[in-house]
Structures are given as structure tokens and as C-alpha cells.
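ingest -> validate -> predict -> emit
validate: passed (alphabet ok, no gaps, 262 aa)
predict: started
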Amino acid sequence: MAAATRIHPTAVVDPGARLGEGVEVGAFSLIGPEVEIGDGTRIGPHCSIQGPARIGRDNRFHGHAAIGGEPQDKKFRGERVDLTIGDRNVVREFVTVNRGTGDGGGTTRIGDDNWLLAYVHVAHDCIVGSHCVFSNNATLAGHVEIGDHVILSGFAGIHQFCRIGMHAFVGMGAFVNGDVPPFVTVAQDGYGRPRGINSEGLKRRGFDAERLAAIKRAYRALYVSGAPLEEARAKLAELAAGSDDVRALLEFVETARRPLLR
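emit:
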């Protein structure tokens, strides 16, 4: 434990935990064994962090976050599984993040610079990229993969084993039960349905008119043309010759593990 670490007198820190410089642990929080917390990370009151878990630098965990708990999976038998969280993430009140499972790869991973707002749940074996925003009550079932710059609106729910591609936007209350390609917007309609591309988000991230036009052509080929998936994939392959963004979208479609959300 670094000298500059500040632990509230009511907090409990296991001797097997490793805390970096400038780490703060708030009142009544619990840090379990085999937990590593990087420099400058702040743990609010009434939090629990269970290991094995590796947490990077300058993260902020607000009150009552429950991080690194055992997976909510009946097949879990106490095998050694872990959680990895990167740097500069904001984790708000009552967020739950579970460790992995032995049959699912053994690790739950969250990247850098994400915002997980109140009551978000990240289940076992999920892989979350960087620069994502999960709004209140957004929920990931097990084995979900989320790309960079994804936004999940409030009460969105993602079915197990689904993938959400980079720069996608999932609207409020949408239930997603298929793979969502990069750049696509999904809106609530019973189960979520594609509703165009995430134009505003892409513009804010510096996508110019040419890149947006290429992505829109790809979206029309995949969703508006009415073509069967194989024909749509062939059209995407043509469009991908002139666009790295379309090439990324095509690669996502070709590696789908679940049916594509169409």
C-alpha cells in the first residue's frame, strides 16, 4: 500500500490487496484479496471490490458500486476467474460488474474512459471497449462484446453473446437480441430495430461528409435495399474497396456469432 493512499477508518482492505499512490477508499467500503488498484483511483462509500481484479489509474467509483463479484451463472463452481478494468473510467452508484466464468474465457474486461451510470450491470465474460457511455439501468447479459464509442441509452438490454459494433447507438428501452453492426442506431420497437446510422455521434467524433456518405451507402445496402443477406454482403464488399469504415462494417457482419439485427 503506497504511502499517499487514504483509507477511511471504517473501510476494510484485505492485506492481499495492492493499492497504488493516491488511492482513496471511502467509508464502509470493502477491498478484497487479489485486488490491484492503480494510482489515483478513488473508491466512494459502501463500495465492494472483489478479486481477482486489476483496476487501472484514475478511475472513480461512486457509492454502493459492487465490482468483481462472482458471476451470476449456475454453472460457476468457484473456479479462478478475474476482472480487468482500464484507466479513467467513471462508475456511478449501484453499478454491478461481475468476473468471468471458466467456460466463458475466465475474464470480464472494461477498457478506458467509459462512463457507467447508475444501476448499470455488466455480466460475466463481457468485453467492453473504450469511450463508451452506458446510461442508467443499461444491462449487459453474459458474453456480450461492446466496441469503442458505443452509447447505450437508459434501460437498454443486450442479450447474451451479442456484439455491438463501434460507434453504435442503442436507444432508450431497446432490447437487443442480435448483433448490431458498427455505426448503426437501434430504436425501441418491442425488440430493438435498426433506425439509420448514428450520424450525430459520428459528426461529434470528427467524421467528415465523405466518410458519412460511405457509411450511409453501406447502411442502405444492408437494411434498406431489401436484398437477402448474401446479396447485401456482396454489395458491402464492393463499397468496402473505397472505405475503411465500410470494410470494418463488413468484417463485423462476416464474423457474426448471432443473427444480425435486421
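Helices lie at 199-204, 209-224, 229-240, 244-254.
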